[in-house]
Amino acid sequence: MSLKTGTSKINILAITACTTGVAHTYMAAEKLEKLAREYDFGVKIETQGVLGIKNKLSEKDIETTDLVIIAADIVIDNPDRFTGCRVINVRISSLLMNPNQVLITIKKILHYPKGKTIDI
C-alpha cells in the first residue's frame, strides 16, 4: 500500500519531541522513517531533543508539504509556523504502539482542506 495523491507520493513533515528529549524523540523519528519506506511516502523529520533542534524544517518545506505530523509529549518550539497546514497531533507513545492509527489518520486528513488539525 502506498500513500499517494494522484500519481505522486505525499510529502509529510514531522516534528518529534519528548519530555526528556532523549530516546523517545529519536525512536519516534525512526518509526516515521520506517513507515515512510513501508508505505511509500516522503518524510522529512525535525527532532527537538536534548541535542537541540536537528534537521530544522524550512519555510519552503512547510509551504510545499501535504501535511505535518507532530509526535510530541511537550509543546514544540515554534508551532505557529504550521498555521494553514494539515496537522496531526499524536503522543509519541501512541505513534510507537499504534502506528496503524497514524496511517488511518493520514489518509483521513488528506480529504480535508489545509488548515485542518486532528488530534489522536
What does this structure look like?
The chain contains four helices and eight strands, in the order βββαββαββααβ. The chain has 120 residues and is an alpha/beta fold. It has a single domain (4-119), classed as Rossmann fold. The strands form two sheets. The chain has a six-stranded mixed β-sheet. A two-stranded antiparallel sheet has the order 1-2. Keywords: Kinase, Phosphoprotein, Phosphotransferase system, Sugar transport, Transferase, Transport. Residues 10-108 form the PTS EIIB type-2 domain. It catalyses: D-fructose(out) + N(pros)-phospho-L-histidyl-[protein] = D-fructose 1-phosphate(in) + L-histidyl-[protein].
Gyration radius (Cα, Å) is: 13 Å
Total of helices:
4
In CATH, the topology is named Rossmann fold
> How many runs of DSSP E, i.e. beta strands?
8
Biggest pleated sheet = 6 strands, mixed
CATH superfamily: Response regulator
Count of folded domains = 1
- Spatial separation of the terminal alpha carbons: 22 Å
